[in-house]
Amino acid sequence: MNKPVNVPTDDPNADTEWNDILRKHGVIPEKPPSPTPLIEEAVAEARKQAHENRLEGKGLEELDELEDEEDDEFLEKYRKQRMAELSTIARTSIFNQVYPLQKPDYSRDVTEASRQAYVLVHLTASGGTNIESRLLTELWRELARKFGDIKFCEIQGDMCIEGYPDKNTPTILIYRNGDIQRQIITLREMGGAKTTTRDVEELLVNVGALKANDTRLLDSAAHNGSSIFPNRKGVSTSGSTDEDDGWE
Fold first, then answer.
1. What is the enclosing helix (H) or strand (E) of 105?
2. CA–CA distance, 47 with 222 (Å, rounded to integer)
3. How are beta strands 151-156 and 98-100 bridged, if at all?
4. What is the pTM assigned to this prediction?
């Protein structure tokens, strides 16, 4: 009776003459294709995209400064794109203030309004001792002036929801298309008492209320001499944390 022969093999992935013979006779599997060409292709494509999008996010003044460096037709394309964006912002900036809410009008002023634009509601503390709630009130005013296409609203938490505890304020409710898209209870995950407009802007980008290349964000970053979001806190965009689920 013939016994199977144990054929000696080297590293099956090695490029050796012996392995080539074994592969030819099906003793070891074919060597998988090298990933190098795919990696090189991906890198080349990434470089191509980066070059094509090198003017993304630049304002009109920055584009004018590049007249001697860039192709006229290419620059004109981005000028028109930026003008269109500015025109859209101007046309949709209809709010530009913080709206105080009354519970009887909540459905109209928030739920229904969110079918036309993003609506952010700040449920405030009942007293003036909650530092985070007072801070968010100030941030709301600044953001409302800056992003007139987003509706910023305020209402005292226990006047909106009976029995809503002050320990859960400030609470941010983000509405779009008639539904709550995001709920944040207190500013803990955004920076607490050190929360800034940049932190809230990052949240707005994460939920889709703003585009990351919105010129208003870029102008602000340029003014501050920083990148758009230099210290990303990773504010979640889906639902609240387990700690935040209960109101009691």
1. none
2. 24
3. parallel
4. 0.61
CA distance 61 to 83: 12
Mean pLDDT per 10-residue section of the chain, whose length is 248 residues:
54 70 76 71 69 52 54 64 67 85 96 96 92 96 94 96 95 97 95 94 94 78 51 48 43
Which residues have C-beta within 8 Å of that of residue 198, sequence separation ≥ 6? 220, 229
204 and 151 Cβ atoms separated by less than 8 Å: no
Instruction: Find, among 92, 102, 187, the residue nearest to 153 by Cα.
Output: 102
Amino acid residing at 187 = L
Report CA dihedral (56, 146, 88, 84) to the nearest 10 degrees. Answer: -30
Q: Which residue is associated with the tokens 């990351």?
A: 212
Tell me the CA distances in angstroms from 57 to 45, 161, 228, one per residue in order.
Answer: 20, 41, 11
The full length of the chain comes to 248
Chain-centre distance of CA 164, in angstroms?
29
Cα–Cα distance, 55 to 80 (Å, whole number): 12
Q: Which residue has the tokens 């007072």?
A: 134
| Separation CA 41–CA 43 (nearest Å) | 5
Partner residues linked to 180 by β-bridges:
175
Q: Do the beta carbons of residue 134 and residue 141 sit within 8 Å?
A: no
